[in-house]
Amino acid sequence: MKLVIPATSLALLACAHSRSPITLADKEAAARPLQLDRGVTGSTDGWDWRDGWGGDEFKFVARETASYLFRVSPAYKGDSEVRHVPQIEVYTLDPKRGRHTIGNTSHVLSVPLNPGVYYVNVDGNRVDRGPYQLAVEIDTRREAAIRPEDPNVVEPLCAQAPALGDAPALGTFQSRSGGARASCGGTGGGAIYIVDVARPGRVTLEAVAHFKIALEIRPDCMGRPAPALGCTKTDGYDVTLSAPVGPGRYFVVVDSAEAGALEFGIPDGGIRGAFSLKVRFDGAP
Amino acid sequence: MKSASATRPLLILAACTLGACTPKAVVVQSWTRFDGPRHQEKRAQFKQLGDAITSVDAWHYDFGREPSPVTANLHAVTLAGDKAFAFGDGGTILVRTHDGPWTQAPAPTAERLRGAWRDVHAVGDRGTWLTGRDGHWRPENTATTDDLYAVTQVGPRAFAVGDHGVLIERAADGRFTRIETRTQARLRSIWMSGEPPTGEIYLVGDGGTIVDCALAMSPPVCVPRASPTGENLMQIIDASPTTHAFRAAGAGMIKVLILGDGGSTLGATLGRIPPYDFRQIPLHFPARMERLLVSRGHGGPEGKIDVAGERVFPPIVTVGAGGRGALLDATRVVPFAISDVGDLHDLAGNELEIFAVGDAGTLVHGGMRDAVETIPIMHLL
Hints:
The complex is a heterodimer of chains A (285) and B (381). Chain A is mostly beta strands. Chain A has helices at residues 4-16, 24-29, 48-51, 151-159; strands at residues 32-34, 40-43, 56-62, 66-74, 87-94, 98-105, 108-113, 116-123, 131-138, 169-174, 191-197, 201-209, 213-218, 230-233, 238-245, 248-256, 272-283.
């Protein structure tokens, strides 16, 4: 009997679903675009659990390193009765690692993402199904791993910032929510240095790190919305930034250009690594 | 050990010169005995060789100079299986089987050999790199002329360091690559932190140089680290096997230890996440030490062994210039000096016995009388 029931079930399934199972590649090829700050709607109707990869697929392109907030909820019908609980899974496709799940939720999901292509699968459970709405935005909430600079975090860093001298500054960067953040894109962290300039000239900063580095020089540490004198980031592990300067005090922010895995007990953007930063000043002729 | 009659000398000098003193015991082999259902014993057995130099009574620790087939200066010693290997000037390679004696092996180079990893890699002057297989050594072309001081294997890759901040990687297929270390200092030692292939290697060298190289990148990315000393850093080692001994000595739970040539020791605390920030660890070693050896017993979580009926940590041993050295356990540092052996340059061994090598072909063997390792069956399972 134990053999008969599964065999019968399989035979019935084969009759009911004679078409080829839907594959992951099928779903990704048919993925609809999901754009920042623009909601989408859909439905989880379907016998997806027998068809292979079920649910709707969306493709999302993250343009900058930031925390992104995905929201999914049922779309209410006319009688306002909620009949199902849609769920989402955010994942990437890595040539080496294959499908890699970043997170999933049936409500809201905040995840730090690097620039790149991500997929969102929306599906109900195996019984419930119905309409849903989905949206993504940059997460600026206090609990976001990556968020704009927070004065409560950055001002103490400004007050304690060491001056760059002849010897390279050898430090440890750790990403930090609300920390000092390069305006050209970064996780934010706790690395700020001072450069004092006595006469007009050009400041050149060179840094190497165990993470993809972003570097910024700014005229004010925090508080005044002045544009950065220079900001650069790299896809490699060393970077050079050069900017013309007049006499005065400047602030250098070392930041991570990419978010890391939220593992190993490192909070926030999940990046921790060594860096070396040195400065050179060339006076104007 | 630590018995009522044991002396506690601060400095024990050799009481006799080579060949002129009463024969003393040295550890020459160990064996395993099953003793009932709960324990097995790995017992050090002693044999009289007749050329012991001195004894550190506080540990029942005996040093004996072994007959050497060469007079060349020896710079490196390493253990592999049941053999010991020593390397030195003029391409000297010596081999000692478990029962001895030391014999000279054919060497394919006349360059000075300064560092070795087991019986697989040996490096030396002018970029010399030998790979060993089945007891035969073959030279390889590193494409560098800098002197190499140390080599280590990390997974399928091997790394060597040396003068002018050189770091050479040997890939699994035998290709050599020079990696930018961002220092020009002489690098003397390598330590692997974490698990390959994504861990980090730390390099140490002259002028307090510490460099952290991340292996997750290709090629590895090296970043210098802040150093609390300007001393020449001779060696960096994994201290976690004896972290309980360091804790008992008041040094805290130490993950990694760096030996400076001025008597400083630097360390990083166990449990921290890399990259490590190194701080001074006051172990009060003598100055001009070149090598440090830590080891642990396997008889319990703390890594103790039995010596003369008492459970103790295997001593941490350091050796260096003038045949001087020190033994450290949870209670004290006991300096010692072995006369007429010149400078000692390297040290290898385990919790029961050590080998040290040095100038003029010096080969020293050390071990503890009545040292026993009791291994509960639970730890064997």
